[in-house]
Amino acid sequence: MNDPLKKYRKQFRIWKNDLRLKRERRYYDNAFASRNLTIPDEERIKREMRKRFPYIRPKAKGTLSILAIYHNYNWENESLKPSLEKFGYVRHYDWCEQFNHAKKNWHKTLRPEMNSFLIKQVEDWTKQDATDVIFTYLSGELVSPETVRELKSFGIPMVNLALNDKEHFVGRIRSGHSMGARDICRYFDICWTSTEAAVRKYCVEGAIPIYLPEGANPEIHRPYDTEKTIDVSFVGQCYGNRPEIIRRLESHGIHVEARGFGWPNGPLATEDMVRIYSRSRINLGFGGVIGFSKAYCLKGRDFEIPMSGGLYLTEYHPELERFYNPGSEIVTYKDFDDMVEKIRFLLSNPEKADEIRKRGYERARREHSWEMRFEKIFHLLGLI
């Protein structure tokens, strides 16, 4: 009796989220057009950075002093930190190391304390050593606009990474403040977003955006010489429509080895996760954003699986075409029936599947590492 009610509540939440996102998009598109704004290209960004930091002189790669501010949720220290270290010495600040006693809702009680401590810590470190750049992975849920403005006052180039701007550029509003990037983005020198649709929003809010997706770390995401014992696998959290789709695949005679938080077999350690990419004939992906009907975004696995040498079959959305040739380097599906058809074709044509897998691997290694992303950012800042 509760199932239909639960279903309707879910549908209502999705309707509300879709409506909010549609209104948000319309507001920013209209503001962008009415103010005659333009999206800055790389040359314009470089000119602006020279104006802001006329005293910066490029250094050799490997000699920068970098302050990195982010929390290691589960992937950051294996992807961001070693990639940053290719450019020099990295001093990492993780607030959970200072506030490890914090409870789940720490932002409601310890946020002001964390923000004050962050400012003091950065001030102390920048006095001890000359810092070339501050890299952050922060949102309005974590830091206040006043905190970011205070960090900006140190006169060090700052770049912020945001990976959830599709649904969280504004996000929830608490006491009039955005929990996304909206209220803090203007204080960064470069705002790195993995969401193409958010670029205009940054411009409207007075920020300088650059659209770059996630990447992968080739020292971790690499092929393993192992037998392919799994037809189809999926590694990721169990939420949204994923359980239903995998159940439907099972009903069509396609078994999916699902691993991650929420699945019966649970999550995997990083090395085991990468090994399963090599053990699988097909690695499944989903491109949808939870809580929305037709919102898609790039995922970390879009780059980690091909770089790990896995054959990648994922949900189609236009942004993928900017970074891969679908059908040649990865495979995409448009609906459930198309997914089933593609799985059966790939399993029945291992030579064709292997050709696609190899080309995807080569493309990812050639263009899609985190190190390459940082190289572009630091070049735009004039640091290297």
Structure description:
This protein is an alpha/beta fold. The chain has two domains: 37-215, 3-Layer(aba) Sandwich (Rossmann fold); 230-367, Rossmann fold (3-Layer(aba) Sandwich), CATH 3.40.50.2000. It contains 15 helices and 13 strands. Strands 2-1-3-4-7-8 form a six-stranded parallel sheet. A five-stranded parallel sheet has the order 10-9-11-12-13, sandwiched between helices. A two-stranded antiparallel sheet has the order 5-6. β9, α10 and β10 (256-259) form a beta-alpha-beta unit.
Name the descriptors:
single chain; 384 residues; alpha/beta; Rossmann fold; six-stranded parallel β-sheet; five-stranded parallel β-sheet; 15 helices; 13 strands; 43% helix
CATH architecture title of the largest domain: 3-Layer(aba) Sandwich
Largest sheet: 6 strands, parallel
Strand composition percent: 5-15%
- Tell me the distance between the termini: 63 Å
CATH top level label of the largest domain: Alpha Beta
- Which word captures the global form? globular
Average pLDDT over all residues? 92
CATH homologous superfamily caption of the largest domain? Glycogen Phosphorylase B
In total, how many domains does the architecture comprise? 2
The DSSP helix count reads 15
Number of strands: 13
SS content category: alpha/beta
Rg over CA atoms: 22 Å
Order of H and E elements: HHEHEHHHEHEHEEEHEEHEHEHEEHHH
